Structure prediction request, 164 residues.
Amino acid sequence: MIIRIIRRRSAGYFLVFLFAPAALCQLGLAKTRERPPLSPKILQAKTAYLDCDCRKQMAVSVRAALPELLDWGRYQVSHDRHEADLILLYSMNPYLGDYLTRDGPDKRPALVDYTILTVIDARTGALLWTDYRRSGYALVARASKNLMHEFRLAVEEQARGSSR
Prediction:
């Protein structure tokens, strides 16, 4: 008798744990993520430099994101950061605002757990936009491409809104 009650309760808990995450995900998908307006510098920029704090498997970020950036065609890709309006920086650590002043790549310890895209004003080093994906090292290329696509969508959405 006691064993049957325990089994029924266990089955009920199992079903809750099985279906609760799916229900929570559905609730999360129903909400749209509100983002603050983009900096006018992003909308006015003509050139972009694609960079990576490349360590370990992060080196694929630029190769994976470049086709999306070229396909978009909004920015001319610059091969020199000093001639660009924007710097599109892939990294594993959050941006500290020190891109223009630091000596070489970011030396903070990091795990290839997050892929972060940060859009930086090339003249001032100011952070203009950022987003990330928790990807792990095996999915850095996909995360990098998706982040570039998300940036593209954000810019296009605001550009459509400002042209009305």
Observations:
- The radius of gyration is 21 Å.
- Residues 7 and 13 are 10 Å apart (CA to CA).
